[in-house]
Amino acid sequence: MRAISERSSTLLDGVLLRFRIARIQGVPTELSLGNLRKADETLGDAERLVDAILAARPADRRALFRGARIAHDRMIVAETERRNADAVTYSQRAVARIAAFVTSGPVDRREGDIAAMIYSNIALAHNNMHRYQEAVSYARRALDIAKAMELGPERTSQMLSVLALAMRLQGDLDGALAAIREARALADRIAYDDEATRMFNRYPILLREGLILGEDRAVSLARRAEAVASFREALQILEAVASREPNDATSRSRIGTIGRELGEILRWDRPEDALAAYDLALRRLREIANNVRARRDIALVLAGSSYALRRLGRTEEAERRISEALAILRETKDYPTADVPFDSPVRAVLQAVADHHAEDGDPARARREYEELIGQVTAARWDVENDLQQAHALSLLYQQVGHLQRLTGALDAAAATDAKRVALWRHWDLKRSQNPFVKKQLEELAATKQSVATRGTGSTRVASTP
Predict the structure, then answer these.
(1) SS3 50
(2) Quick check: pTM over 0.90?
(3) How far from the centroid of its chain's Cα atoms is residue 388's Cα?
(4) Of residues 329, 458, 334, 337, the one with CA closest to residue 399
(5) Residue 419 DSSP one-character state
(6) 165-176 confidence digits (pLDDT tens)
(7) Which tens digit of pLDDT belongs to each residue from 255-292?
(8) DSSP code, position 311
(9) 155/160 Cα distance (integer angstroms)
(10) What is the DSSP letter of 190?
(11) How many CB atoms lie under 10 A from the CB of residue 457?
């Protein structure tokens, strides 16, 4: 038995070393070099050592604890790379191991803090994979641990932030705003030791607050000015880290996200400010080496910036950026494709292509491109009957193609498209009968129908303005 114990201790030292190396290599939970593939290989080596220990000693609490952390990090890497099936498998492994650890003996404050973090990140990953009911359940487990062990404002604010995100994606925008505001109030009380710690704690709260308040063309409260303020504050925090850490991929990736979100709100009526946000995002994303996700994010930012460029009269530059975005998606093997999943960057880029042609005076071509995109979305089988975000995104595609069908004289096709959009929101009205966001969509549909009847076919302006 003593020999087995000594061997387990030696193996656990190896697990810890590999865990630390992987985080430096590219697990996006802290400052890293952004090499996701290398990080996953190292984590795989660490997990094999954990499995060897648990095969000999199934109740070894140190192995369960470190195994939970390894599985948690593998989940994050897999979800970042959109390997969702792998991410779910690793999340289940992490839950099984951390639950076995918590129930098999005393848990100190540090261990409780890590357990809460694991559940919170599992909730976040499930949000990203559109598994919202599970996300809410895991977020509440994390919050329960944080409160029961009195982990303090920093950890509790993080748990509330993730819960707010899950509530928002289920359509509870008022509940989500209350939770994120509570999270921010707690975070405002914290004195951070350095800019990196400040970034990792405040960035998610500010991002989610902005998304809840006013994410463009998404499920939000449409309070755009407040959303801009949240995004700008987040951007300032991220830039403070990126400017001091020339090799950090995490802050640069997050600037890519915030810059894009900020640009997409501002591009409709403040195109110069929007372009500045997009260009900062592009510059920082291009500083990340050997990272497929960063390449996809660059494609998204290039496509988004085309809207601002056209509003500034720089149409040729807008077209060049769209062409570059498509070239990147060819390079990453995302395009061409027969189907377009909801979270694929292809959707935003192809929509930018069609909108460019619509605004550049070729509505017939734009209509064909939108109709093809809807066909690709249909082939991907979006879960529009159960996922509010996906339903809203499809509704906006219907709105655009219906507008273009009317512009090109295809009035019967436009009526059929409008009917699909109405049916979609009536389904959601039955599913969430008291949901204010759903009610708002139905009200806007009724107003649009009246406007179309009054105006006729209208102008060639693209209809996707806020």
Answers:
(1) helix
(2) no
(3) 15
(4) 458
(5) H
(6) 999 988 999 999
(7) 999 999 999 999 999 999 999 999 999 999 999 998 99
(8) H
(9) 9
(10) P
(11) 14
